Amino acid sequence: QLQLVESGGGSVQPGGSLTLSCAASGNIPSTYCMGWFRAVSGKDHEGVAHERAGGAIYADSVKGRFSISRDTTKNILSLQMNSLQPEDTGMYYCAADWCHSMDLDARFHTLRYRGQGTQVTVSS
Prior knowledge:
Helix content is 0%, strand content 46%. By secondary structure, the protein is an all-beta fold.
């Protein structure tokens, strides 16, 4: 069973940056894509950034500020987050599933592999 473990969360001031990492316990199947979701208290998980064969896709709220990448040699997915704002506060999760299932509108709890999350807090 593949396991995903997120790290890199923390507290930053508005305008700051953080880089999240998601370490996979094994190789990700070539037919799978990975992505990041976030959950804010009282709201459903929101797709933030997902891999795509033709290029990553991002939620409108993070375009131009967040960047997703994967080191396939180390099985680590990263999320570089710049110009963070208080509304970016939440628990961030990574997930992996068949690429056709990894859509920004995907229901997080239905995805094949899911991490436990790392907290990001943006406040002054």
